[in-house]
Amino acid sequence: MTLFDGAGPMPITLEAQVEVARREIRFREYVYPRRVRDGKMAQSEADQQLAGMKAIHRTLRGLLESGEQAPEAARFPPGELTKLQTQAAQGVMLKRLATAAMKRLDQENEKVMSIVVDEIQELDALREALKSMEKP
Fewer beta carbons within 10 angstroms: which end of the chain, N or C? Predict the structure, then answer.
């Protein structure tokens, strides 16, 4: 079963979602032991991720068995999901850039404030020196 045909958008049915989740479980059962063995993933993380996908599969299968239909949010025309993923990635990148810019501004502000504080202290020292020179 394909999610989309060549004629246009086809809804991602619950049957298709259940199948995708089942394939993902099989994939994780195949890949995670190797990742754990190679030290790229902790066993606890592998267990948690696999348990999460199995829970998703059970939920979808339960919805399917109860006669539910795929929610409208799960229906994407060809290319739309990729477009949304690209937009999400761009949003993440913009957030990272904005965070880096704000950090840089904070660093620059700290430098400027340090210079201002030094100048104020120097002016205070000069003021005190002038006062002491005025007194007989």
Answer: C
What's the pLDDT tens digit per position in 19-75? 999 999 999 999 999 999 999 999 999 999 999 999 999 988 888 888 766 555 455
Q: What pTM was estimated for this model as a whole?
A: 0.46
| Distance set, CA 14 to CA 19, 42, 104, 125, 135 (Å) | 8, 32, 47, 77, 91
Count of Cβ atoms closer than 10 Å to residue 60 Cβ:
21
- Which residues are CB-contacts of 8 (< 8 A; sequence separation ≥ 6)? 77, 78
Residue 5: strand, helix, or coil: strand
Q: Which residues contact 99 (CB under 8 A, 6 or more apart)?
A: none
Distance CA 106, CA 113 (A): 10
Instruction: Give percent of the chain above pLDDT 90.
Output: 32
Distances, alpha carbon 28 to alpha carbons 42, 44, 129, in Å: 14, 14, 76
